[in-house]
Specification:
The protein is mainly α and about 350 residues long. The strands form four sheets. It has a two-stranded antiparallel sheet with strand order 1-4. The protein has a two-stranded antiparallel ribbon with strand order 2-3. Strands 5-6 form a two-stranded antiparallel ribbon. Strand 2 and strand 3 form a beta hairpin.
């Protein structure tokens, strides 16, 4: 309820006070509390969906090779966003005591996402990209863990200070936070990664991440009573959907589908043909047969064979055997040297 309230004129001992006119607004507390509770229920439900999508993605990249394809910056940026949301909802619950339980529930779910699932996933990606460290003992692993956690919480605290100093530029900072798909796009191009992310994870996380900013800045009846900004909301949706669309096209068309062939670096061909002179050096006899160490069967290394793959270290494997192996480890099964992407 909004309107003007005018006080009566007061005359006291000959002194005359003019009337005061106030622009007052009343708030229906019950409606306000209902809106806040409905918002926390929405955040809790969204957090539950994000956990499901994250578990599916973790299963999709459960192998060392699969985890190494996922961008550490992409998961770290989302973990920082969830940590901020956890702190914001917890602070709101402390400030409004009657709504503490509702906001604390939303904060708890956000805490579970970033402290358990996303930090665990960050650790798995970190270990997958440093396989040599795993064999150096607990001391080396503890040093790696301390580096990972110190960087994460350093970025977290630095972001809080940055947003405090630049609170007038909150809309631009949110755009920066919602560029979390870009590190994965760049990583796909650099590594020529094949399907590092599950399609359900891309679509689900894109949709659920948009829910909170669209409610706060796009819903005219939000419980914070903030002025809506439809233009900014439209730009945010277009920005995030464009990132997700590029990722989906990379999933189906290849990581470098949008780069002209002339600009692409030379790529190793696993189906290259080996001349007789090289075969004689490798096998000792140009007519000798090679065995696939994965399935222990003979490999047809003839010039017309389409089932033979050759690694850069000149080891021969069946195409299906090596492709399944590379889904688990990106190293040669024979000599353990790193393998380039297909």
């Amino acid at each position: 309820m909004k309107g003007l309230i005018e006080s009566p004129k007061i005359e006291n001992e000959g002194e005359c006070f003019s009337a005061l006119t106030l622009n007052a607004t009343s708030v229906n507390v019950d409606v306000y509390y209902n809106k806040a509770v409905n918002y926390t229920l929405m955040v809790t439900f969204i957090s539950f969906l994000q956990v499901l999508f994250l578990i599916r993605q973790m299963d999709h990249s459960s192998t060392q090779s699969g985890a190494a394809k996922v961008s550490l910056w992409m998961i770290g940026q989302q973990a920082i966003m969830d940590a901020y949301l956890c702190l914001l909802h917890l602070t709101a619950g402390i400030l409004v005591e009657s709504l503490f339980n509702a906001f604390a529930t939303a904060a708890f779910f956000k805490f579970v996402i970033f402290s358990i699932f996303e930090m665990r996933y960050l650790l798995a990606i970190w270990k997958a990209r440093r396989p040599a460290t795993s064999g150096e003992g607990w001391e080396a692993m503890r040093r790696e863990l301390s580096v990972l956690y110190s960087r994460f919480y350093g970025f977290l605290l630095g972001g809080i200070l940055l947003m405090y100093e630049l609170h007038n530029l909150l809309h631009y900072i949110l755009f920066l936070l919602y560029s979390f798909w870009i590190p994965q796009i760049v990583s796909n191009v650099k590594r020529d990664s094949r399907k590092p992310l599950h399609v359900h994870y891309i679509v689900g996380i894109t949709a659920t991440r948009l829910a909170i900013p669209l409610y706060i800045f796009g819903c005219p009846k939000n419980f914070l009573r903030l002025k809506t900004d439809i233009v900014w909301c439209t730009c945010l949706v277009a920005f995030l959907v464009l990132q997700a669309l590029v990722l989906l096209l990379q999933h189906y068309l290849g990581a470098r589908w949008f780069i002209p062939r002339q600009l692409l670096p030379e790529k190793y061909s696993y189906f290259r043909r080996v001349d007789r002179g090289t075969l004689q050096v490798i096998l000792g006899d140009s007519n000798a047969a090679a065995d696939c160490v994965i399935c222990m069967a003979t490999v047809d290394i003839g010039q017309r064979s389409t089932d033979c793959m050759v690694t850069p270290c000149d080891h021969f494997f069946h195409a299906g055997c090596l492709q399944r192996w590379m889904d688990i480890k990106m190293e040669c099964p024979t000599c353990r040297r790193p393998l380039p992407p297909m």
